[in-house]
Amino acid sequence: MVLVEGENGDGVTVEQDDFDVDGGPGPRSAPQQVVSAILGTREGAAEGGYELLSTGVTWTDQAEATALRDALAAHKVENVMLVSAFLAAAALAQSVGSSVGYSRTGLLFLEPDTATMAIVDSADGSISDVRREPLRSGDTAGELAALVTDMQTLPMRPDGLFMVGSGVDITPLKSQLEATTSLPVNAPEEPETALARGAALAAAHAPLFSSSTAALAYAQDPGTGAIDPYEVTPGYHPAFDEAAAGEALAYSAVADDEANAPTAFGNRPDLQTGVFPDAGEGRRGRRPAALVASAVAAIFVIGVVALAVALLMTMRPSVGERPNPGQPVVVPSNQAPPQQSQPAAPPAPSAPPQAPAAPSPAPEAPAPAPAAPAPAAPAAPAA
């Protein structure tokens, strides 16, 4: 398992781990161990305040890849791209070719019993002129030299050669090829994790590799892998009739009655295509971020496309921190000394109490009414 920095999967390796797997079912089986590693890596990244952009898993066994697909769906693990070993090698070839200025890179993918040759376009990652040959003569170097000679006669001649091995030590073969071809021969600096980094690159550039039509005829070929990394949509399966045609043909594996129904391949009911159910939000128990290191190679190798650009990782707060609007983000290194507090001025004396207002004078009594005049006495009669 490798953890790679950079949103395009082309950064430095942040962490690398190996872990044991068991061949049988159980919690230590290869699919369950891979699911635990993915969940643990995601939780560790979240606790550190990083964002895990995508995850790529490369495989060499079709049945194990199907079991991993089912395990990911059961655990509701999203944003995981299953990449065949051949497409992981092609993604790495595109990255190397772009870095050295090749327009086209010749890919030579070696397995214990087969060798696959292809041309990878550095601009868009498209794959063309795919040719797969068995290695039977015992002279592996001679057979590879013949493949490279044929590659040089193609109309779209490559600018250089890139070798990737799966279960094969390519170091001595690289030296022998350099002596027989005029093309520059390149190989990964770390062959053990080369396919993991290729899976990371393919996951980061999923639309480019999913749109390649040149490898459709090899869609379910265990040697070159599936063009659909999820293996959940209808695709193509090689129908090989050596006596009739002499080469592998491809036919549509789309179901007749229901487009989303699982489709079994011949007498291999374990190999199916279908559609993932929507895996919504799910919470898992905590998994360890770092697994026990071991020298035993796992069937699956994970390439995790990393976390974020270095500047973003240094400037972004961790997940547990939240910005405080009332607190400044940047604190100056030389702060001004605090000003001495001035004594408060004494309070002003209170005003003396005002004298009570004089009572208003009582209203004057009304003058008595004048007395009525006495009636006049009657005059006395005359004598």
UniProtKB/TrEMBL annotation:
Residues 1-214 form the DUF7159 domain. It comes from the Bacteria. It holds the Pfam family DUF7159. Coiled coil: none annotated. The chain crosses the membrane at residues 291-313. Residues 260-284, 322-383 are annotated as: Disordered. Keywords: Membrane, Transmembrane, Transmembrane helix. Residues 344-383 have a biased composition (Pro residues). This is DUF7159 domain-containing protein. It comes from Mycobacterium branderi.
